[in-house]
């Protein structure tokens, strides 16, 4: 009929984490109660797609002290908002109309202007992320002509990268 807050105490029992809630004592035969619980569980990165809770009523009643164990599976859903930011340095690059690359040269300036593209991948949460794959498609040719010559690829922050085919193929 009324709503009451329960006093619950977490503890370890037989190697398991147990939350013990006192529902009331004594209770009349046939009493029906509904309990809504909100649990905060951490460390779910490797939990899979659900976690299971075992629920059991225990009583000091000598006739039936323990109810059957009920297993409740709760789906685990990790959410993270990823944001990709990028910039090019310089922002614009214009070659003179008569400029031609110097074939066979290993000097960077003989192949065009250096443009550095920097991308930052940010996790805005609320969950942590791992195993993220970012694929960047960089247009290196335009209408059969060289547009961008991919010179090098670098990362920061413990990320792994797979170098694209043709990276610095002229060994500039």
From TrEMBL:
The entry's keywords: Glycoprotein, Integrin, Membrane
Xref: Gene3D superfamilies: ntegrin, alpha v. Chain A, domain 3, ntegrin, alpha v. Chain A, domain 4
GO biological process: angiogenesis; cell adhesion mediated by integrin; cell-cell adhesion; cell-matrix adhesion; integrin-mediated signaling pathway
GO molecular function list: integrin binding
InterPro entries: Integrin_alpha_Ig-like_2, Integrin_alpha_Ig-like_3, Integrin_dom_sf
Mode of membrane association: Single-pass type I membrane protein
Pfam name, any one: Integrin_A_Ig_3
Domain Integrin alpha third immunoglobulin-like: 83-171
GO cellular component terms attached to this protein's record: external side of plasma membrane; integrin complex
Compartments it resides in: Membrane
Keyword Magnesium on entry: no
Domain Integrin alpha second immunoglobulin-like, first and last residues per copy: 3-76
Main location per the UniProt record: membrane
Superkingdom of the source species: Eukaryota
PANTHER family: INTEGRIN ALPHA, INTEGRIN ALPHA-IIB
Protein name (Swiss-Prot/TrEMBL): ITA2B protein
UniProt source species: Casuarius casuarius
Gene designation: Itga2b
